[in-house]
Write a structure and sequence with these properties.
Helix content is 48%, strand content 20%. It is α+β, with helices and mostly antiparallel strands and 254 residues long.
């Protein structure tokens, strides 16, 4: 993670705050956005107009929304990633084999980003989508990635983003998280037992290069009634670890 710039460009920072807030609000008008950001309406209006003219926002029924032009940039960035290219066919196979959600995540700036996902025949509807950013400690994939990072790197992420609670089962204590990361290193895979979404369990494995540097993680997630003890602790981990191994080999020799 890079350090903060010595002289942040305030206008650029404001622009991105506006975009991110519009995303969080699922669209808003000038007044609502100005109130949310505690900024002058004139300033917000000028930024919105500029972004709209540049085609990064769209205006519908008086509200501004994040536009599809961001999809072009994100799609291009994703398509250039070797991990995405190599792992995507395996993610599809994983979803087909298990019938559940199969996911691929990377870490950027201390957050987990869903890079790809595939939906099996029995998969339930979830809030995840390509590009969704989540706190690493709330997901099996995030914890799998963290288990391959140094303690100093983990501390830096905790200091930057904290350990916010998402469900009643979310780990919010740093020492408890580090104990679990040690267990993940020992067994090779991570679990998420309703820690981000109530009623859902998840099993994940890290994807690493030859130096054991984490490149990302893959997972399979499903409802607790189907992810019973045998499935959750034996069947799914074997399948996920096998797929992770295939991806790592293909990454090395492609």
């Amino acid at each position: 993670m890079s350090s903060k710039p010595r002289q942040p460009v305030q206008a650029a920072a404001t622009t991105f705050r506006i975009i991110e807030t519009l995303h969080e609000l699922n669209g808003a008008g000038v007044s609502e956005l100005a109130d949310e950001l505690e900024m002058p309406k004139s300033t917000v209006h000028d930024h919105l107009q500029t972004l709209n003219e540049a085609e990064y926002l769209v205006k519908r029924d008086g509200d501004y929304h994040v536009g599809a032009r961001f999809l072009e940039l994100g799609g291009f960035a994703r398509s250039q990633m070797k991990l995405y290219q190599i792992a995507s066919p395996e993610i599809e196979k994983l979803a087909e084999e298990t019938g559940e959600h199969a996911n691929l995540m990377i870490e950027e700036h201390g957050k987990g980003i869903f890079l790809n996902k595939a939906k099996g025949r029995d998969a339930v509807n979830l809030d995840t989508h390509i590009g969704k950013r989540v706190h690493l400690h709330t997901t099996a994939m995030g914890k799998a990635i963290l288990s391959k990072r140094s303690e100093a790197a983990v501390d830096e992420i905790i200091d930057r983003h904290g350990l916010p609670r998402v469900t009643e089962k979310t780990i919010t204590d740093a020492d408890e998280l580090k104990d679990e990361l040690a267990e993940i290193r020992d067994r090779g895979y991570a679990i998420d037992d309703e820690e981000r979404v109530a009623g859902m369990r998840c099993v994940a494995a890290p994807i690493c290069d030859g130096d054991e540097t984490p490149l990302g993680a893959i997972s399979v997630s499903g409802p607790t009634n189907r992810f019973n003890d045998e499935t959750f602790t034996n069947e799914i981990p074997k399948t996920v670890l096998s797929t992770a191994n295939v991806i790592e080999v293909n990454m090395t020799y492609s």
